[in-house]
Amino acid sequence: MKSIVFTFSFVVLFTQLAMAQQSNEEQNLIKLSLDKWQWMADKDVEKLSQLFDEKSKFVHMSGTWKKGEELDIIKTGRIWYKKVTVKDTAVELFGNTAIVWNRITLDAVVREQVAVNEFTVTEVYQKNGQDWKLLALTFSSVRDTHQIKH
């Protein structure tokens, strides 16, 4: 009986430890994603430039472009990501690749017009050494009742 209790306790402890490590990496990605939204709102292209991979792509309602154009759009304010309200987040890890889904309300200024939209944003990251690099960011227009399945 003692060996069963010991074995069960060991399995529970090991499982919790494994989940805590995974959760830690997931939490790091969630924080990085939230930081990214703040950097976009602040037009901090220096930090964004370090985060965005050289080959990164960005899909918006009005087009698809690469890193340089996205940074220019942010810097010049052609799109000002004024405020992002994150309603839900999900993370999936695949080795050194991660996908982060954010369910957001975006308050933006686009070509001098205020725009408030509901999106699910898909962010693809790849770990490069100790750092995560953003490879792709895609805005999908959704209804405000849309939910991310965890």
Describe this structure in words.
38% of the residues lie in helices and 47% in strands. It has 150 residues and is α+β, with helices and mostly antiparallel strands. The chain has a 6-stranded mixed beta sheet with strand order 2-1-6-5-4-3. The longest helix has 40 residues, at 2-41. The model is unreliable at 4-21 (pLDDT under 50). It comes from Aquirufa rosea. InterPro entries: DUF4440, NTF2-like_dom_sf.
CATH class assignment = Alpha Beta
Q: Major sheet, described briefly?
A: 6 strands, mixed
Query: What is the CATH T-level topology?
Result: Nuclear Transport Factor 2, Chain: A
Our measurement of the CA-to-CA distance between the termini, rounded to an integer number of angstroms, reads 37 Å
**Tell me, what's the shape?**
globular
Helix and strand succession?
HHEEHEEEE
Tell me what portion of residues adopts beta-strand conformation.
Answer: over 45%
Average pLDDT for all residues:
86
Task: Classify the oligomer.
Answer: single chain
Organism: Aquirufa rosea
Protein name: Nuclear transport factor 2 family protein
Keywords: Signal
Signal peptide: 1-20
Task: Sum this structure up briefly.
This protein starts with a helix and ends in a 9-residue tail after the last strand.
Secondary-structure map:
Elements: H1 2-41, H2 45-51, E1 52-60, E2 63-66, H3 67-76, E3 79-94, E4 97-110, E5 113-128, E6 131-141
Parallel strand pairs: 1-6
Antiparallel strand pairs: 1-2, 3-4, 4-5, 5-6
